[in-house]
Amino acid sequence: MTTLTNPSYIKNNIMKNNKAKLSRSHQAIILMQQAKQLFESNNYNEAIQYYTRVIDLGTTLNNLAYTLYMRGCTYEAVGNIEEACIDWNEAQKLNIVHSLGVDFVEEALSKYQVN
């Protein structure tokens, strides 16, 4: 399958010096997938760099909220709670409602809020 909906096709074309021009959205999705893999492999510092690249690239509000949330989780994993809370607060300001109705950002922030 060689369409823009196939992630391996998109990734291969980015790696081939962008022979097929991809939208920022597609590039952001690839970077988010790579960041998630790095996070799951406990490569937190590299994951932070990939999440930051997504933010710098610009993406949809949903992807931005997810990226800020995940970068916050990654900061939390390396013990940088201050940066984690900054990202979670920024994600919360976007007012994106999760499709399952769960406010993961609020749950993350509640761990560190002082009453």
TrEMBL record:
Record-annotated membrane-spanning stretches: none
Xref: Gene3D superfamilies: Tetratricopeptide repeat domain (1.25.40.10)
Top-level taxon of the source organism: Bacteria
Species for this entry: Microscilla marina ATCC 23134
Signal peptide annotation: none
Protein name listed in UniProt: Tetratricopeptide repeat domain protein
Lineage: Bacteria, Pseudomonadati, Bacteroidota, Cytophagia, Cytophagales
